[in-house]
Structures are given as C-alpha cells and as structure tokens.
C-alpha cells in the first residue's frame, strides 16, 4: 500500500503544478478587468504587441549620414568624412567600397556625371569613380 501511495503522490507532484498553472493562466486571460466592455478584456493579441525596432548596422547609419551630407553640401565633403570615419573605425574599412560607390551614384543623380566626377578622390581606391561611371 505504501508503494502505491508513493507512486500516486509522485504522479500528482508532477502533473498538478502544470494543471494549476495552465488553468490559472486561462482564467486570468478571460477576466474582464475594467468593466463589461470587451475592449478592456486582458487577452493576448498579436496586433497589440509592439515590436522592437531592429538596430541598424554602423555602416548603414554612416552611409545614410554621408548621403544626406552629399545632398546638403557636396560629394567632396562626404568623401572626406568617409575617409575620416574609416581611419577612426577600422571595422568600417570593409564597407568603404560599397559606401563610396553609393556616394558616386548619388552624386550622378544630384550633380550629373561630369560634375560628379570632378569631386573624385582616392578614397577606397576608385570606388567613388566606379559608382559615378556605373550610374552614368
């Protein structure tokens, strides 16, 4: 008899907490907390969940800043700042080529091919000039 009682006790010890937690969760989620209005009922809804904004990579932030600077000032200033950023943060060096090409394409859109080429600098080899050439 003692052995059977222990087995039943162990089974209940494993199953009972799970049953209590699930039933309590279901009961709480169906309680109208503030009144009879169905809008005030506490329920899980995927439409109410606010998603956390994805953090942007440093090279994407830098590219956007430099493209804005190109529009406000000129491509030469943006290229100078690109060079300084790459010198200050060497981890951006592998993205320098794509950023310089994006600046070249944006310069062609804003200034035209011949004027955009006049701003060319030896930043990231010839990536800026390549961006100008491909956008032309």
Write a structural description.
Helix 2 runs antiparallel to helix 3 (75-88), helix 2 (58-72) runs parallel beside helix 4 (96-111) and helix 3 packs antiparallel against helix 4. Helices cover 65% and strands 0% of the residues. The longest helix is centred in the N-terminal third of the chain and has 28 residues, at 2-29. The protein is mainly α and 136 residues long. The mean pLDDT is 81.
Topology:
Blueprint: H1 2-29, H2 58-72, H3 75-88, H4 96-111, H5 113-118, H6 127-135
Helix pairs in contact: 2-3, 2-4, 3-4, 4-6
Stretches where pLDDT falls below 50 for ≥5 residues? none
Mean pLDDT: 81
What spatial form do the alpha-carbon principal axes imply? Answer: rod-shaped
Largest sheet, if any? Answer: none
Q: Over the alpha carbons, how many angstroms does the gyration radius reach? A: 31 Å
Question: What is the strand content?
Answer: under 5%
**Number of H- or I-type helical stretches:** 6
Main structural class: mainly alpha
> From the structure provided, what is the oligomeric state, counting identical versus distinct chains?
single chain
- The overall strand count is 0
> Terminal Cα separation, in Å?
91 Å
Helical proportion, percent range: 55-70%
N-to-C order of helices and strands: HHHHHH
């Amino acid at each position: 008899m003692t052995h059977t009682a222990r087995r039943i006790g162990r089974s209940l010890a494993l199953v009972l907490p799970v049953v209590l937690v699930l039933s309590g969760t279901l009961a709480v989620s169906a309680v109208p907390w503030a009144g009879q209005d169905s809008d005030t009922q506490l329920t899980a809804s995927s439409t109410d969940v606010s998603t956390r904004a994805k953090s942007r990579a440093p090279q994407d932030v830098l590219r956007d800043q430099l493209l804005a600077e190109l529009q406000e000032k000129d491509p030469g200033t943006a290229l100078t700042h690109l060079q300084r950023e790459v010198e200050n943060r060497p981890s951006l060096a592998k993205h320098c080529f794509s950023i310089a090409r994006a600046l070249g394409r944006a310069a062609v859109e804003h200034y035209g091919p011949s004027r955009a080429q006049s701003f060319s600098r030896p930043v990231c080899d010839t990536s800026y000039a390549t961006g100008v050439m491909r956008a032309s």
